[in-house]
């Protein structure tokens, strides 16, 4: 007796990260100004009351441990150890009355701490 199995369709994964228009615009300004020649590296570190936080640093060039993400003509680096936590994330830039900064809309987050500084998956 022989059975044939139909191969399962391959699911396409969401992009590792995307940038909102505001984030891309802000990064272009930073890259053209004081951070000329550098790239933003995004990582996830163990920190805060929920356990994890986004860690943004400047890098001179990609390393072997970086994923290179280009969206809207802007390149950022993602620490390879953070890819599972960031898959499908959109990075935004928000300006509020008393603050401005990059924010993350991460479909992998299961919750955030009360102050918003850390998250868990």
Structure explained in plain terms:
Helices cover 13% and strands 40% of the residues. It has one domain (17-107): HesB-like domain (Hypothetical Protein Aq_1857, Chain: A, Sandwich), CATH 2.60.300. It contains two helices and nine strands. The radius of gyration is 17 Å and the shape is globular. The strands form three sheets. A four-stranded mixed beta sheet has the order 3-2-5-4. Strands 1-6-7 form a three-stranded mixed beta sheet. The protein has 121 residues and is mostly beta strands. The mean pLDDT is 86. Strand 4 and strand 5 form a beta hairpin.
State the main characteristics:
121 residues; mainly beta; Hypothetical Protein Aq_1857, Chain: A; 2 helices; globular
Protein topology:
Elements: E1 17-19, H1 21-32, E2 39-46, E3 52-59, E4 66-71, E5 74-79, H2 83-86, E6 89-95, E7 100-105, E8 111-112, E9 119-120
Parallel strand pairs: 1-6, 2-5
Antiparallel strand pairs: 2-3, 4-5, 6-7, 8-9
The average pLDDT is 86
How far is it from the N-terminal to the C-terminal residue, by CA? 46 Å
CATH architecture: Sandwich
Helix- and strand-based class?
A: mainly beta
Question: How many separate helices?
Answer: 2
Order of helices and strands: EHEEEEHEEEE
Per the CATH scheme, the topology name is Hypothetical Protein Aq_1857, Chain: A
Pfam families: Fe-S_biosyn (PF01521)
Family: Belongs to the HesB/IscA family.
Domain Core: 17-117
Protein name: Iron-sulfur cluster assembly accessory protein
Summarize the structure.
It comes from Teichococcus aerophilus. With 121 residues, the protein is mostly beta strands.
